[in-house]
Design brief:
There is one protein chain. This protein starts with 15 loop residues before the first helix and ends with a helix. The chain has 18 helices and eleven strands. 39% of the residues lie in helices and 9% in strands. It is of the alpha/beta class. The strands form two sheets. It has a seven-stranded parallel β-sheet with strand order 6-5-7-8-9-11-10. A four-stranded antiparallel β-sheet has the order 1-2-3-4, with helices on one face.
Length: 607
């Protein structure tokens, strides 16, 4: 196969299911052609139909001029005189070859980390031969090569320093493998009825623009339907399970040696990764306590009736339907029109039935690149759910919710602690990072959904700048200082301009309060005192406080933005921002830093 925009010949290995049959045919041909063999007449008639490509076969043929034997792969149905057929000559083994980055990879140590990467929208278009944009497989090949080169260069520099001071040389850095998970060709087969119907209804005009709609935007529309959402999740989960099993067979001591697995999702692939973790969370052992007096913040599923009743009291109403905390929304469908509570959303995929198949590991790290998860979660109505979790955790910590056996709590209520601001929601992963370019039009934040409803947007904590060593570049710091000064001067100017208006508004509010008090006193003669219950306000609750999100796992924060360049126009950057994550230097350094082996981390701590 010739890669895009290149003329170099690439060796492509046969799948394992076919290689052993081809090898057997090769050995029979060698045996038959020897002096003790029975001749090649029968061997030249044998054909092997490939299981991986049912429309192709492998046979032994004589080379035209030299008469030497060779093995050839060609279509099962031959054209007239073979015109127009695409045939490939098979080679036993790789032979002598060199590839870019091979020396760097051979210089590295053992494999200690495997990263499953799920592609996003438009992969059907990027994988076409006539499109210049690289597919995810090509991008991961480049990423793997750059990561290996960076590791080797850094290691060799350390070796030179150790040689100068006559210290033992450091061990070679660990190797990281990136495994692509492709779902577009499994779900969007040309023979599929939906794809055929889409092709039939597509107009013939402006084909370039219509291909963008059909190959890019259509992926999102497909995922919003329960049937195709389930098909995509099943496809991705099955691939991860198969690669996980194959990986363990090739590296049997990988897990015992401290090897770890991680997930990376780009664009729509990050939504798929989020939903896979949601399903994993939903299928975990339900017997694990979700919260108690010793660990009151670990509350994810309010399973006990006491907690449900107390939550209804907090909301000043009786519960009419179960809370939608499951990873699938089918449970709420039985309530029909009676379920009008806006708090009944879901953080997971909208499936028609519960999905039992899950990935066989808990990721050490989950990274979302250019993710629209914030948009999807908003559409799923998850903000009230996360806010409810926060309210339950707050009430549990303050001992306002009675125990499940309705006995009096032995410990007195605690009121001298600061309120819980961040929702205690979490997913089964060691760490979670939502990384985005500030100019990416597809990327959305996640942290505001974990904060209480009603918090002003100006009070949201700013996303942290992505940096492996925690350092922010000088021009970024200068820009931050300028923006902060501009904001402060703008605030002071606004306060000065509105000082008179605020005084008048306060006077009017005082008059209205006095009138309301007099009216209440007058109405008390009838013995019917009315109280107004206002919704709690969270304006100003984040000022001066450091937010820590459980969703981040090891990281207290979730949202991270890429540091802009010295000369960076946000509108010009928006053109390429969504497709440049795998080549971004900050992200590459971040992945290298967070996929270090246990030995490398210990060496850094020791130094």
């Amino acid at each position: 196969k010739n890669p895009k925009n290149q003329k170099e010949f690439v060796l492509k290995p046969l799948p394992e299911v076919d290689s052993w049959q081809v090898e057997l045919l090769y050995q029979n041909a060698v045996r038959a052609s020897s002096s003790l063999g029975e001749g090649l007449d029968d061997i030249l008639k044998e054909e092997i139909i490939l299981q991986s490509e049912s429309d192709c076969k492998v046979c032994v043929v004589r080379n035209g001029g030299s008469g030497q034997l060779c093995m050839r792969k060609k279509p099962t149905k031959s054209n007239l005189f073979g015109f127009g057929e695409v045939q490939s000559t098979l080679q036993r083994g790789y032979g002598q070859y060199t590839i870019e980055g091979e020396d760097d990879e051979n210089s590295l140590g053992e494999l200690t980390h495997a990263v499953f990467v799920i592609h996003g929208i438009g992969e059907a278009m990027w994988s076409k031969e006539d499109v210049s944009t690289m597919s995810m497989s090509d991008e991961l090949d480049q990423l793997r090569m750059v990561v290996n080169r960076k590791k080797v260069v850094s290691w060799r520099e350390e070796c030179k320093k150790c040689e100068k001071i006559k210290q033992p040389l450091p061990r070679p850095p660990n190797r990281v493998e990136f495994l692509p998970i492709e779902w577009y060709d499994k779900v969007r087969s040309p023979s599929h009825a939906l794809v055929s119907s889409l092709t039939a209804v597509t107009l013939d005009s402006i084909p370039a623009l219509r291909s963008i709609a059909n190959d890019v935007i259509f992926d999102v529309l497909m995922y919003l339907t329960p049937d195709y959402c389930e098909a995509i999740l099943q496809c991705v989960t099955t691939q991860i399970i198969e690669l996980f099993s194959t990986f363990q067979r090739i590296y049997p001591s990988f897990i015992e040696g401290g090897g770890k697995f991680s997930l990376v999702g780009h664009s729509l692939g990050s939504v798929i990764a989020w939903d896979i973790l949601s399903i994993l969370k939903d299928n975990m052992d339900k017997s694990i306590p979700k919260g108690d007096r010793n660990d009151p913040i670990r509350i994810d599923l309010p399973e006990s009736p006491a907690r449900g009743r107390t939550l209804a009291i907090l909301d000043n109403k009786q519960p009419t339907s179960p809370m939608g905390y499951g990873a699938y929304a089918a449970a709420n469908a039985t309530n029909g029109a009676e379920n009008n509570d806006s708090k009944h959303g879901t953080w997971g995929p909208n499936l028609s039935k519960k999905m039992l198949q899950t990935i066989p590991f808990t990721p050490d790290m989950t990274v979302f690149l250019g993710s629209p998860i914030g948009l999807f979660l908003t559409l799923r109505g998850v903000h009230p759910i996360f806010d409810e979790m926060r309210a339950i955790a707050e009430a549990e910590r303050a001992s306002l919710i009675p125990s499940d056996n309705n006995e009096e709590a032995s410990a007195p209520p605690v009121f001298d602690i600061s309120p819980i601001i961040c929702s205690p929601f979490s997913l089964p992963t060691g760490a979670l990072y939502n990384i985005f370019h500030p100019s990416d039009p597809v990327a959305y934040r996640i942290e505001p959904l974990l904060l209480p409803e009603g918090v002003d947007k100006d009070e949201f904590p700013s996303p942290l700048f992505l940096s492996a060593d925690g350092k922010v570049r000088l021009h970024v710091k200068a820009r931050q200082v300028g923006d902060q000064l501009f904001k402060q001067f703008g605030t002071l100017s606004a306060l000065f301009d509105k000082s008179v208006e605020k005084a008048a508004a306060d006077a009017a509010a005082a008059d209205a309060t006095d009138a309301t008090r007099k009216k209440a006193i007058a109405g008390s003669n009838d013995g019917k005192e009315k109280t107004l219950r206002e919704k709690p306000k969270f304006s100003g609750c984040i000022k001066g406080r450091e937010c820590s999100f459980r969703l981040g796992g090891r990281s207290a924060r979730v949202d991270f933005q890429i540091q802009p360049g010295v000369i960076d126009n946000e509108y010009l950057s928006a053109v390429s921002a969504h497709s440049s994550y795998f080549s971004n230097e900050d992200i590459i350094d971040f992945i290298i830093f967070n996929t270090r082996s246990v030995v490398e981390r210990a060496l850094v701590v020791g130094s």
